Amino acid sequence: MRAVVITEPGDADVLALQDIPEPVPGPEEVLVAVRATALNRADLLQRRGFYPEPGPPRAHEVPGMELAGTVVALGERATAWQVGDEVMGIVSGGAYAERIAVHERQLMAVPAALGLADAAAVPEVGITAWDALVVRGGLTSGRVALVHAGASGVGTAAIPIAKAMGACVVTTTSTVKVEACKAIGADVVVDYTVDDFVEAAWAATDGQGVDVVLDVVGGDYLNRNLKALRVGGTIVQVGVMGGGRTEIDLGAMLPKRAHLVGTVLRARPLEEKVAVTQRFAREVLPWYADGTIRPVIDRRYRLADIAQAHRHMEANANVGKILIDVGD
């Protein structure tokens, strides 16, 4: 089968399309013919050697953390799916390939309204955003979320999920992406190049502060997030694009009785990934099924053009997900 292999750590040119052996599904796995996969920031880090796939090294290092495709074979104890079923899901790696073996309970059925080709835009960012805002952050109807990088993959998933559940969204983005974030549904869009998101958060909440912050930036945003937070609020850190080290003002944190939660999805044990996937399927996927939420897709590339896709993401040019078409 064809797969994109990281030949050595480096820039996008180290990604090579090669023929490698097709995986054999384990007893509780299914083999999926991949229709599409999608890029995530973690892929860029992995390519540079900074974020290896958890677990024993594979014979070939194939990145890719989410997929949509069709079941083509079943492990001997796999009973959840049938050959021909259209599925999507998160994986620890290996999705930049024509075939992938996935534990059957990590997969979700693709809603007809979503379509197989676009479904790869949902699993990683959808589960990440929902898990951060709702499971970790406690967001509910009537509350206010501050979502940083609103035009990113996670941001474009977080905004409509929060809106679908009845919450208010304040988001940050660059000047050229302000209108896109408004179109996605954000109530307040802050151009971080010219405006202060702390002031905007306080203005949007009549001086109370936001209930939940979803932050993929880190760095010096942490103390500003504390200022934007209401008493008893929660900051959920899901990325460190702006730096992983910073100082925190504990004097500001204590009277706010603030919660600071760090989370990642990729490194979780199988059972935790299964649990969050199945809960997402029950609680959020119906919004994709009835058209309340549609994934925001920036553009699509062929598998052979994977290096170009990586460069596009590294240029921070995308609004929403970058999809890679693998099969027909």
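The above is record 1. Record 2 follows with the same two-line structure.
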Amino acid sequence: MNIQVLGALAAQVNGMSITPTAPKPRQVLALLALHAGHMVPVAALTEELWGENPPRSARTTLQTYVLQLRDLIGAALARRADGGAVSAKDVLVTLPGGYRLDTRDGLLDFREFERRAGAGYRAMDAGDHEDAARRLREALSLWQGAALADVQAGGQIAMEVRRLEEARLCALDQRIEADLRLGRHRELLSELTVLVNRYRMHESLHGQFMVALYRSGRRGEALSVYRRLHTAMVRELGLEPSPALGRLQRSILSAHPEPAATGPVDVPAGHPARDLHRAQTRHLAGHAL
């Protein structure tokens, strides 16, 4: 079974789509896919589908959705020329208290993203910025839009979508960082122009944009980026930009950049969703202009 969640939900078995069209079964499939290989409790599925006030028929209705998914899986499995030894119940497994989706070594795009991004972070740690940029670019290429963009999200799925989007933003931040260290500041200008408008309070992206502008001979514009961020943060959040971003601004003002001081980026093994604030502070503090 191959499953895509980094964009519209799509699931295939033997090349045949098993993605249901009805909203509730899609939710069930999406939540099971996000936890593939692990049991999802009935309580978690019920909360996802109906929130804090499920109907009395919730368990029976959930079982109906599971049967609908099994019918789709079973029809796809039947396409195998040899008939196959795997049944739908082996793929969507009933366990005491819940259900588990077994992809049987199929491709889960979000786990492949995490694997590729992790390789990029390790290359960044090792100072191999060329390899880091390549691997992170490959990881980001798996995204086809917002995670589960066409799935009605309850609390459980919404939380997982936020986690995935944070991981995506972190990988993007590090890919840009690697490209800056490779001297690709001019190539980054148009991309960063879009990103700072999309993520209006993201300090690291603003800092990277300031560096790219400064290195491209556009010092005044780099300082304008800081002023706009400062104004927006004070007005909307009641906060000043971080000290690291302030130091970067002063370096640009004085045209006496601080020496690079960024050490290896701290990335927990196997966990791509990192502490963005710490990463931002370290990157901004370490930019050599």
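The beta strands are 2-4, 10-13, 16-17, 39-41, 92-95, 98-101.
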